[in-house]
Every structure is written in structure tokens, then in C-alpha cells.
DUF4064 domain-containing protein
Amino acid sequence: MKRTVEMVLTIIGIVLFGLPVLLSGIMLNAKDNPQIREEMESFINSPEVQMEGEVTSSDLGQMMDMMGSFAMFILIASLIAIGLGILAVIFLKGNKKPKAAGIILIISAIVMTFATVFIGIFGGVAYLIAGIVALVRKPKTPVEEEGTINY
């Protein structure tokens, strides 16, 4: 039995989990960019922005560090999701272990959607659909008619 539908949906999910990787890479790049830091500091301390108290450079540094930690967490979760998707494609290719692939896809869809703070929801939906189809689809059973076996 060919598992083309499941494989295509899984590959679409892999590509869609690449978007959080891209976004977190941009956030990590922005964290280390001194020009962006200066612009944020001038924006926060401008008279148009009404904030209680003065925002110091150490506060801004802490915020940028938290943004970097958040981006690294999203990056790692997305890379794990992509790795699990590739593993599921390997299991689906040649119809080796479709049940295991379905379970991996469903669990990774749920866990990684939450782990990426819903940034990877579209990839999670693709994984979830592929996992359900992999579990539900039954292999064709041979039908015996008048001494011959038909598939």
C-alpha cells in the first residue's frame, strides 16, 4: 500500500515547522545587533511613549536576553519537530511502520504546537492529519474468489 498522502502531509508539516526556525533565527540575530538595541532604547525613552518609570539600559538588556532565550527555545522545539517528521517519513516509506509513524506524528503535532507557543500550529495540523490518516488507513486484505486471490 502506498502512503503518498501521509508522506506529502508530513513533508508539508516539515516545511511549515521551518517557519518558526526562520523566525527564531531572525530574533536571535536581532538580539545581538547593537543597532536594534539602540533603536529600541531611543523608542522606549521617546516622549511619545508613555511608560511608568524610566527604562534603563539594564532593563532593555534583560528584555533582549529573554527574547534570545525564547527564540532559542522555539528554535530547538522546531528542529525536534522537523527531526520527528523526517523519522515519520522514513517509517512511512515502503509502508515499514505506519502505526509507529502515525503515533509519532500525532504526539509531535500536539507537543510541538504547544512547545512553539502556537507559532508552529500549521505544521502541527499537517502532522495531526497525516498521523490520523496513517493510523486509520487499513491495508488491503486479499479476497479469495473461486480459487484465485485478488488484491
Remarks:
- Residues 112 and 128 are 11 Å apart (CA to CA).
